[in-house]
Amino acid sequence: MTLLDFARGPAFYWSFAIMIAGILWRLAGLVFFTGERDISKPKETGKVAAGLRLVALRSVPPHELEKNITFQHFTGYVWHIGFFVTFLFLGAHIPFIRSVLGFAWPNLPNGLILVVTAITLGILLTLYVRRLFHPVLQVITDADDHISMWVTMLPLITGVAAFAHWSPFGVRYETVLAVHILSICALMVWLPFGKIFHSVTALMVRFRTGAAFIRRGVRA
Predict the structure, then answer these.
(1) Quick one: which of 37, 98, 146, 180 is 20 to 30 A from 104 by CA?
(2) What predicted TM-score, i.e. pTM, was given to this entire model?
(3) Are residues 88 and 120 in contact, defined by beta-carbon separation less than 8 angstroms?
């Protein structure tokens, strides 16, 4: 079995299984292990509206903080969108998406995807360097932050190398492609256990918080 066969076969399927099992396990914890039931009389109703309201409000920074985190705010949106556009609309990814879902959609031009990927990777590298040298971010950065940054950046770096058929030091293209797939496997395995799990729970947690607050008569 070659490295590419291993990456496409056992590594990918086991990583995917770990990701799905981990996501379900984490979500089960959020849904079922909620602590003691609150039997007090609700001070206000309209939990759905309150939950949706907080989802919208927490999607933009508070006015008091906006001038201090504008860069982080907008670059965060851009790289998240760029990452998903690269994954969902690159022509080389469409056959894989069809094999998993049973259907797919038209791809975007490769040149456009390459530009989006370059912008996304550039923003991620900039944010990472900023995290390394910013005095406040240095204090609150832990191992999870470093791992999460690298498992997010490596699929983009190796993907660009595979797309360009770049083979450094005489490495075969098949090896470059295998490393790209393995980097995606690492991302899938880490997703349920690291801070990047917020990509699954962010909207859910915001909705739940808004619903809980309105029950107590608080408009968050």
Answers:
(1) 180
(2) 0.85
(3) no
